[in-house]
Amino acid sequence: MLHFYYKSDELYCEGVPIRKIAEEFGTPIYIYSKAQITQNFELLKNSLRNSKILYALKANSNPSILKILSKLGAGADTVSAGEIYIALNSGFKPEEISFAGVGKYDDEIKFALENDIFSLNIESPQELLIVNEIAKSLNKTARILIRVNPDINAQTHPYISTGIKTSKFGIDPNEAIDVFKKATNLTNVELLGIHTHIGSQIVSVEPFVETAEFILRYIEKLEKNGVKISHIDFGGGLGVKYKNAIVNDKLPFEENDDKELNPELFANEILPILEKTGCELIFEPGRFIIANAGIIVGKVLYTKKSKVKNFIITDISMTELIRPALYKAYHQIVPVILKSEEIEIADIVGPVCETSDFIAIDRKIPSVSRGDYIVVMTAGAYGFVSSSNYNARPRPAEILIDGENYYLIRERETFEDLLSKTLMTKI
Ligand SMILES: Cc1ncc(COP(=O)(O)O)c(C=O)c1O
Ligand SMILES: N[C@@H](CCCC[NH3+])C(=O)O
Q1: Domains of the chain, with CATH numbers?
Q2: How distant is the alpha carbon of residue 125 from its chain centre?
Q3: Would you say the ipTM is above 0.95?
Q4: CA-to-CA distance for 280 and 278, rounded, in angstroms?
Q5: Cα separation, 104 vs 117, whole angstroms
Q6: Cα of 288 from ligand 1 centre, angstroms
Q7: pTM of the model
Q8: Which atom of ligand 2 is nearest to the CA of 382?
């Protein structure tokens, strides 16, 4: 069930009309549904049974959202010391936090070790030695998993495919055997297990099955080499539905529909394979938990029509949602009030000075006019976290809805914020 819905042709989130939020807090603005976050997390948790779910902060790291997830029993998957810092300050205990990433700074490794987080996921032979060295200097033992690159095509956009052999992530499986062996001999490292993450927005289960089978075979190979492990971190990547996210008679239906990965099917296919290893299982989903729990609300600034193209110019731009510019990603766009039966085709764009600043190209949408509120659906993941101040645009506010109530969970930036870290030289 989607917690964004139309009631008498007006869009609501849970018990709150979206128009009300836009009028009170202005646009553009991000709005999240607590009920949706909870529903998504519970669905995954029930499907994945006894596995540990470490929510990937990179998808959305607003502390109020993290607090909800930590209370529901999630841990945190992080990719920088900044994310570890946010996780620690949003309710996660150190022993629930893992730290991945190909380019950890020495200071970040130190920060992770000083805070005694659950694990560091090692991405190169060199990193293993550096982590051991830093742990030694701190008189600590680093718990580690080793990320292996299984060379599996995740069947997703190439820019978010991370498990093919030419990608920078993880270690080649053949080379990694020696890295595992080495890890068992180092003084300040405790080897926990293997980590894989083949990519993001994966909607078919096959690449995941292939990965699980790879891991099973790999663990047997490790055992033959005298290496025993206790943990498998399977990564994240579960894909969501972007097209026809919300369906209504007055909205055009996207014929070339898409689907999301069914978590029950995912679990039923993956768990029996991984459970054969007797290892503790960890998953790191981000998008699946938060994507459809968030929207961006904006306002139509101008409608510009010509014989060549129609443009709907809005106050939502690539600075609030970079996914269309980065990957030509599709997001459904709907009016807050369904007042028009007429459908037009237009490019929906923002004010930023880049031709790639579009939210949709040649998109069918009910006719809108200047001043109307519009919504970008499925924008809870990789929305605010990838926002920027490009063109000196202050970042928008974020609102969390819980039933009839709503809370400001991040203030809108001001012009003062744009200058706040700058220093005027005396020259
Ligand atoms: C190591 C790692 N874990 C988890 C994730 C979360 O991915 P997703 O949001 O697709 O579930 C990512 C991002 O792709 C990642 O790089
Ligand atoms: N930014 C990407 C996902 C990145 C995945 C992180 N490894 C997106 O919006 O789909």
Answers
A1: 34-287 (3.20.20.10), 292-419 (2.40.37.10)
A2: 27
A3: yes
A4: 7
A5: 15
A6: 10
A7: 0.97
A8: 9
Nearest atom in ligand 1 to 100's CA: 1
Query: 296: which strand partners?
Result: 30, 376
Length, in residues, of the chain: 427
Q: Give nearest CA residue, ligand 2 atom 9.
A: 382
To which H or E segment does residue 218 belong? Answer: helix 206-224
Average pLDDT by consecutive 10-residue portion of the chain (427 residues)?
97 98 98 98 97 98 98 98 98 98 98 98 98 98 97 86 88 97 98 97 97 98 98 98 97 95 97 98 98 98 96 98 98 96 96 97 97 98 98 98 98 98 93
DSSP 253: P
Is 353 marked active-site?
A: yes
User: What tokens were used for 115?
Assistant: 């805070």
Q: Is 323 in the pocket of ligand 2 (CB under 6 A)?
A: yes
Is 62 exposed, middle or buried, given 0-12, 13-18 or 19+ CB atoms closer than 10 A? buried
Q: State whether the beta carbon of 201 lies less than 6 angstroms from ligand 2.
A: yes
Amino acid at 226: G
Give Cα 378 distance to the centre of its chain: 11
CA–centroid distance, residue 167 to ligand 1 (Å): 15
